[in-house]
Amino acid sequence: MSEFIKEQFFIVTGASSGLGEATALELNKQGASVVAIARREDKLKELKSKCANPDNLYIEVKDLSQDIDNLPDYIKTLKEKYGKFRGMAYCAGAGSIIPIRALTYQDTLKLFNINYFAPLFMAKGILDKRNNIGKGFSLVCIASSAGVSPSKGQCIYSGSKGALIMSIKAISKEVSSYGARVNCVSPSIIKTPMTVNDEGILKDDNKEKYPFGWGEPHDVANMICYLLSDKAKYISGQNYVIDSGGSL
Amino acid sequence: MDRQEFLEQMQDVMQTETELNFDTKLEDLEEWDSLAAMATIAFLDQNFKVRITYKDIPLLKTIEDIAKKAGV
């Protein structure tokens, strides 16, 4: 099924693994051109080799947690290279389990840089009217079910994701005037390299909490692609929790 | 900040592809809306420590008027 055409360019961050990889593959399969950003070039090359339309997948190596102040300029250089963007899926992020008693200010800054400030300044860049197509533009940020319903040890992780969810709501009000949409998707226990050490979550006492067990990256990528498409043209400023009903 | 830099910065404040000059009339700019006004207020504060309010906005007619507020 071709939801998109190759003239429609999307940025996907965190594209080397997990949700970003699944989103880049799905968008590419559905006919879009994808600018895949990640830190690791070898993983991006691997991604290109396994996507459906390799000619429509472009690799950009970049660590988005560095030099955050200049991320809007980075988007501008991408615009000059690829043209105006139709959308962005911001999937780069990091996990953290630190209880308040063990917290340091440095931990907090580091995680907020990756999970909050980097997506915010990438959003600033791509929501600049000179860098996107205007009406029909769609931004989706990966937040987390922890941003709505946190667990022990997630004081800064949930804070960084909850902050992102609320900022996206505020931003939706600012960009609706020119027809752009912004939303968050909040997964919980999805099998990705980021959660590989969290296998213990699904102990017997949690089986009832997550009746559908672990999710696959594809479960989230489908939602992201939907929100990026015109099928979701009436949806903005929302946060969609994808968590097997776990936060209920 | 010199006048040329100021003009370049205004280009970003307005997020416009229309090339601005000091005579550009704000009302002729498609991008001159309440958010652009909000961004102008923030820009003057951040860069020139000049505080203006929404009451001042209707008095700004051209880019030159904003430059005068900034003192460039």
Keywords:
heterodimer; A: 248 residues; alpha/beta; Rossmann fold; 7-stranded parallel beta sheet; 38% helix; B: 72 residues; mainly alpha; Non-ribosomal Peptide Synthetase Peptidyl Carrier Protein, Chain A; 0% strand; globular
General description of the model:
The complex is a heterodimer of chains A (248) and B (72). Helix content of chain A is 38%, strand content 15%. Chain A is built from 7 helices and 7 strands; from the N terminus they run E-H-E-H-E-H-E-H-E-H-E-H-H-E. Chain A has helices spanning 18-29, 41-50, 71-82, 105-126, 155-175, 204-207, 217-228; strands spanning 9-13, 33-38, 57-61, 87-90, 138-142, 181-187, 239-242. Chain A has a 7-stranded parallel β-sheet with strand order 3-2-1-4-5-6-7, with helices on both faces. The longest helix of chain A is centred in the middle third of the chain and has 22 residues, at 105-126. Chain A starts with 8 loop residues before the first strand and ends in a 6-residue tail after the last strand. The model of chain B has no long low-confidence stretch (mean pLDDT 96). Chain B has one domain (3-70): ACP-like (Non-ribosomal Peptide Synthetase Peptidyl Carrier Protein, Chain A), CATH 1.10.1200.10. Chain B has 72 residues and is mainly α. The A-B interface holds A 128-130, 174, 177 and B 12, 15-17, 31, 33, 35.
